[in-house]
Amino acid sequence: MSLETKPLRRTMSLTQLASDIATVLPEVDSKTNGQYGDGLGSEDEERQLDLLFDALKEYNSNYTAVNKEVSYPTTAERCDIQLPDGLPVEAKLLRYWRANGDPEHHMPKQVFSPFHENTLLSDAERLLDSEFESSYGLLGLFYKRADDDPEAVKALPERFTACNLAEKVRQDIEYWYECTASVECVASVSDLQHRVHRQGAVITWKIV
Known about the structure:
Elements: H1 14-30, H2 45-59, E1 67-71, E2 78-82, E3 88-95, H3 107-112, H4 120-129, E4 136-144, H5 162-177, E5 181-189, E6 199-207
Parallel strand pairs: 3-4
Antiparallel strand pairs: 1-2, 2-3, 4-6, 5-6
């Protein structure tokens, strides 16, 4: 990857963020020797974000202006990412399977539950209740088995793709929190090296 020499910009869209992460992710994946198998997909959220944003800074100098672990204005909580224009973004790993191939039974709760802490929906609520200015963003790093994997769980609905998941999250956010949410980007990734987390997508949502 070659480093761009464009001057730093104060604006960066959630669509660009997802697209750029999807661009660097396969190379990061190819260089990751993970604790639970080679590849990025089985690593935890913090390590994935660290590796991906290190690569993004090499890919495009604008990412040097992105901050991570930013304090919320009036609480001790921290937001995963803040874009150069100040837009706060909370991130979540979205995985149907564990690294050993077993179904990840907690995934529906981690994504869709408004009743538990540290879920994608509770992240949306925390952003909406915060004193951050303007709009807010969510970032999902979505992984699943390859489409031709014979060990895929039969009960998993075939239509529950990254796009379907993205749209359901959008609808749930609007339903529970009476706000406006949009799916900004679903950028696919494939041919990853972990035997279970072989493909997926980078998804971003905007909340206002």
